[in-house]
Amino acid sequence: LYERSGPIAYITLNRPARLNAITGSFPQLLEDLIARANSDEQIHVIILRGSGRGFCSGYDLKRFAEGKGDVEGESHPLGTQSMPWDPTIDYRLMFGFTQNFMSIWRSPKPVIGQIHGFAVG
Fold first, then answer.
1. In angstroms, rounded to a whole number, what is the distance separating the alpha carbons of residues 107 and 37?
2. Distance in angstroms (rounded) separating the CA atoms of residues 87 and 92
3. Which of 23, 46, 77, 103 is least buried, going by the fewest C-beta atoms within 10 A?
4. What is the pLDDT of residues 68-84, one digit of tens each?
């Protein structure tokens, strides 16, 4: 969820029923929203926050383990693979996510974490 209030851009993790657990599409979405805020000359600061009773419970391991997509009822191989397990597949996935999350670090505008409740993983 992206909102703007004066010189502040708010990026809100908005899955309160799952304690804002991270899905497969979220890392890229976060990078895109950070870029959006950085490209807006009227924005001076970015606040990253979570809705509901916690900031973030980490990756949605249930969704990843079940091979679920980000839309209810959708399925795809994200986070799952046939045996034998190939660590390079897992590494590529997590490396990509890490690069997305590093957009916070690389942001030329300050990013403030408005942390409350759970902040895991």
1. 9
2. 9
3. 77
4. 555 444 444 555 667 78
User: Are the C-beta atoms of 47 and 10 separated by less than 8 Å?
Assistant: yes
Tokens of 15: 């899955």
Q: Find tokens 């950085």 and name the residue.
A: 38
Which token pair is 42?
A: 């009227």
- How large is the greatest C-alpha to C-alpha distance in the chain, in angstroms? 52
Other residues' Cβ atoms within 10 Å of the Cβ of residue 2: 14
What Rg do the C-alpha atoms of the chain give, in angstroms?
15
Q: What is the DSSP string of 46-69?
A: EEEEE-TT-SB--B-HHHHHTTB-
How many CA atoms does the CB half-sphere of 104 hold within 13 Å? 15
